[in-house]
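Working notes for the structural subgroup meeting. M.R. asked for a predicted model of this chain before we commit to crystallization trials. I am recording the input and output together here so anyone reviewing the notebook later can reproduce the run.

Input as submitted:
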Amino acid sequence: MNIMDYLFNYAYDHKISIISTYLLPEEENCSSYPSKNMIIINMNLKNKKQLPFQIAHEIGHVLNNHDSMAPLYFTNSKNKIEFDANKTAIQILADFYIANSEEEYINPEQFMDTFDVLPHLHDEVYKYMNNKL
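Returned structure, recorded in token form:
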């Protein structure tokens, strides 16, 4: 199974609706509506490499039940809500990465490069992956 199938199935299993669209790359990225258990994904992102991370991040907002009257958008902000969604994204993606890699080839740096994980999340990636191995 590829990562996109995994993420869409993961959302489905957690009763999260996904609307995928093809906006212009410079338009809105991805967003979530936790109160509606829904995320919207722009499949036409400029940075295609980061698409799985952004999807997992938006799933994280819904799973974490981030209360907001307005939609929540993917951002590299370090505020608590965004950081928590990023941590959940790391967990979702790392579980897939670890399950689909031979143990001797599991590498946090490679994981970060594969999913274009934001550099300020380095410590969280190492902490989660070291606890899983």
